[in-house]
Amino acid sequence: VKNQPLVFLAFLFTSMPAVGMAQDAPSPVTPAQPTPVVPAPPPLPAPVDATPPPLPPRAEPPPAPAPVVEATPAPVSQAIVVSAAQAYPQAESTAATGSDARESMWRIEMGFRGSYVPNAGYDPFSTNDFLPSFSVAASRTLVAGHHLSFAAGLSWDYGRRGAEDRGDHAWISAQRVAVPLEGRVHLGPLGYIFVRAAPGVVAEHAEVDDSSAAAPLSKTRWLFATDVSGGLAWLLTPRSSAPARARLWLQADGGYGWVASQRLDLAPALASGDARVVSGTDLGSISLSGGFFRIAAAVSF
Amino acid sequence: MNPKSKKVARSGLVGCMALVAFLASCGGRPSYWNDAVKTDSVAYGLANGVALVDDADHRVVILTTPGSDLQVAEQWLRIGHGVVSVTVSPDATRLFVLSAGDWPRRTLKDEEPSMTVIDLPKDVFMATARRYDMSEPRGNLAVDPLGHWAAAYAGTSPSGVQATGVAAASFVQNPNEIVLFDLTPPSAVPPVTRTLQSFGGSPQRLVFTPELMLPNMTPRRLLLIETDIDLTMLDLDRAFDPSPPPEITVPLTSKTTSGQVTTAGVAVDGRNANDPNDARFAVWTSSDTNLYTMQLVAPTTDLRNDFAPTINVTDLGGVPSDVAWVETTDATSPTGLSLRVAALVPSTSTAILVDPDRSLTTPVTLPAPYQKLSLVTDLVAGAQASTQDTDVALLWGGQGGSSGVALWTLKNSVMQPYASIATLGATQPVSAALDVPAPNQRLKVLPMASGTGFYVLDLSAQNAPPLSTSLSATLSIAPDGGRLWAYQQGGTDLASVDFKTLNPIPVSTDLPIDSVFDIERQDFVAPMVHGRALIAVHNQGAIGITVFDALTPVTATSRRVAPLLLEGP
Question: What is the pTM of this model?
Answer without folding.
Answer: 0.80
